[in-house]
Specification:
By secondary structure, the protein is of the alpha+beta class. 22% of the residues lie in helices and 33% in strands.
Length: 201
């Protein structure tokens, strides 16, 4: 997992790995369909040290609550994902909080770009069909991706920002625990086309 701090510095901070239940990969993938996620963030590719663990406290009706725990099991923060049209709005809502801190609320994409995307959807479907039957090399294409940028707000500030370009999290507030940020970007990616934890192997 990598993200940018407020000074524009880029760094790789952790490497995620699924933490499988007793039933192994099949059990994880079955639970995953309900919004369940469970993974470890390691300090390096050799699993030298556990940075944090993400566990699912509840997942039902399109609303999932996750806790981010430290190496000793201490609570780092809580993340709640409310799926679009299932929670409290037309867009997917992400709420992030640290013990004793304010809630940081972010919505996936901007309303105006969602409006444009839905207007263009019929045309994109036609383009996809054309490219499927087009035999000219190099003309492969596809539909434009849905808006994915997320800006978290809290007390008039923007402490966190997930940018679709590069799938990176920008940490604008130094008081936000970087481990919480690393867990957040891993969760956001797991619910996107990246689908890093949804592999069958």
């Amino acid at each position: 997992m990598d993200f940018f701090d407020g000074a524009g510095t880029h760094s790789v901070v952790a490497r995620p790995e699924r933490e499988l239940p007793p039933g192994g990969v099949p059990a994880y993938l079955a639970a995953r369909k309900t919004g369940f996620r469970s993974f470890v963030l390691w300090s390096d590719e050799h699993r030298g040290a556990r940075v944090a663990t993400v566990v699912t406290r509840s997942a039902d009706g399109g609303v999932a609550t996750f806790q981010v725990l430290g190496p000793q099991g201490e609570l780092i923060g809580t993340i709640v994902r409310e799926k679009a049209l299932r929670g409290r709005g037309l867009r997917t809502r992400w709420t992030v909080s640290q013990p004793g801190g304010p809630e940081m609320v972010g919505y996936k994409g901007r309303i105006v770009w969602w409006f444009v995307w839905w207007l263009c959807l019929p045309l994109m479907v036609v383009l996809v069909v054309i490219t499927v039957f087009d035999s000219v090399p190099g003309n492969e294409g596809g539909a434009a991706r849905a808006p994915r940028r997320i800006r978290w707000r809290a007390a008039g500030r923007m402490p966190l920002e997930f940018r679709s370009g590069g799938d990176k999290l920008h940490l604008h507030a130094p008081e936000v625990d970087w481990r919480l940020g690393a867990a957040l970007v891993a969760l956001v990616r797991s619910f996107s086309a990246v689908n890093w934890d949804g592999q069958k192997t």
